[in-house]
Amino acid sequence: MTPRELYRLLRSRHGRPSGQWSLWCRRPKTDADREQVIIEAVLTQRANWTNVQAAVRRLAEAGALRLETVCRLPEAELEHLIRPSGFYRQKAARLRGLACFFLERGGVAGCRAEDTDRLRTHLLGLDGIGPETCDDILCYALERPVFVVDEYTRRLARELSLTDDLSYHGLQRWFTAGLRRDWRLYQDFHALIVVDGKSRGRRTPAAERNG
DNA sequence: CACCAGGAATGTA
DNA sequence: TACATTCATGGT
């Protein structure tokens, strides 16, 4: 199976991902939207999406769903607001670091001219920003052609035996091989993988081992 | 009550 | 390089 065939299969199963569960699928329109995606990228680390949305709601109600606010909010206050998403002490520190990083370079808009690889290196250098969180931000918030590999992607690759190389970059290479280098396509492809993964639920570890 | 969810850092061998 | 452990909440 090729990436294109897989994409068409998922599209035939689920249609366009635009009407689905999150802002990410609808494609952020404003800078406020993009900042929300950046915040969600951190909150969603090893967390249930329902809990992430609860934390997002609290931030919104406190008027803190913006990078500038997150950056200057007292640590304890930020921790309190995002508590439902879990790991709240870690995530508060990570969010703050990320928010301040963007503010120092003129916010989301200020990064527009910056080279993608360079930006990626800087993001990965921040505390708590690993490959997935980094690529979530690049692909969904900054609209760069960077394919996101997450647990759903890894699971699908295993279940369909798409490739032997299950490393982050290996999967990134497989899923983009022969495809247009287009952030819209990458967003939709990844969103479809998540939608599909959620709809099918998680197989038991035992079932996975038995293929 | 036990297990899990769109990770990442740290420590160990 | 390859695993194990830690961080923590709310849903099922």
Plain-language structure description:
- The protein is mainly alpha-helical and 211 residues long.
- 66% of the residues lie in helices and 0% in strands.
- It contains 14 helices and no strands.
- The protein has helices at residues 3-14, 23-26, 31-43, 49-61, 67-72, 75-82, 88-104, 107-110, 116-125, 131-141, 151-159, 168-176, 183-200, 205-209.
- Helix 1 (3-14) packs across helix 13 (183-200), helix 3 packs across helix 4 (49-61) and helix 3 (31-43) runs antiparallel to helix 10.
- The longest helix is centred in the last third of the chain and has 18 residues, at 183-200.
- It is globular.
- The structure holds a DNA duplex (13 and 12 nucleotides).
- Provide a count of the helices: 14
Helical proportion? Answer: 55-70%
Amount of beta strand: under 5%
Round the mean pLDDT to the nearest integer and report it: 94
Major sheet: size, sense and barrel closure? none
Alpha-carbon distance between the termini?
17 Å
Counting helices, strands and paired strands, the structural category is mainly alpha
DSSP strand tally = 0
What is Rg?
17 Å
Question: What are the low-pLDDT stretches, counting only 5+ consecutive residues below 50?
Answer: 204-211
Shape: globular
Please write the string of helix (H) and strand (E) elements: HHHHHHHHHHHHHH
